[in-house]
Amino acid sequence: MAKKGKKRKAEAGDVASNRQAAYRYNLLDRWECGIQLQGSEVKAIRDGGVQLKDGYAALEDGELWLHNVHIAPYQPAAREGHEPERTRKLLLHRREIERLTGSLAERGLTLVPTRLYFKGSRAKVEIALARGKDHFDKRRSLKEKDQQREIQRALAER
């Protein structure tokens, strides 16, 4: 039987997750977005050829775009393939985009992709409104993580 409260590295059904995002940023709010893809990109995502580490989302002309997300080329579609790091449009309701616009006006906030997964047959991206951590914040979160590990170890021995 699985231990209660144990955190998974990635949620079930995730194709890719950005674990560095929680280390680099304080994640404030999350949204689920659709993503506009080409056919070969969908096949490549199903194969797991996605890297979210350096990705970010930006508002341009009232639309939300995903930048620097690497989707590896799908080998069987060599001729009709896609560009691996092209910008991709994210799909959100107009009200949600307007809310994001207001939030991003605050200095120091950015949008980072945290997960990419399939919901039914559709690819979804979870983006988070994030504020960058200072160096001492990163040390503090590592220290808290070590303390939690020590507590769990002590409880397991008991």
Describe the structure.
The protein is α+β, with helices and mostly antiparallel strands and 158 residues long. It has one domain (14-133): Small protein B (Small Protein B, Chain: A), CATH 2.40.280.10. It has four helices and nine strands. The protein has helices at residues 19-24, 39-46, 94-104, 135-157, and strands at 14-17, 25-35, 50-51, 56-60, 63-67, 70-71, 88-91, 109-119, 122-132. The strands form two sheets. Strands 1-8-9-2-7-5-4 form a seven-stranded antiparallel beta sheet. The protein has a two-stranded antiparallel ribbon with strand order 3-6. The protein is globular and about 60 Å long.
Proportion of residues in helical segments: 25-40%
Separation of the first and last Cα atoms:
18 Å
Here the CATH topology equals Small Protein B, Chain: A
CATH structural architecture = Beta Barrel
Strand content: 25-35%
Number of distinct beta strands: 9
In CATH, the homologous superfamily goes by the name: Small protein B
Largest sheet: 7 strands, antiparallel
Unreliable stretches: 1-8
Q: Total helix count?
A: 4
Query: Based on helices, strands and strand pairing, what is the structural class?
Result: alpha+beta
* Rg result: 18 Å
Which strands sit side by side, in order, in the main sheet? 1-8-9-2-7-5-4
What is the class in the CATH system?
Mainly Beta
Mean pLDDT: 84
SSE pattern: EHEHEEEEEHEEH
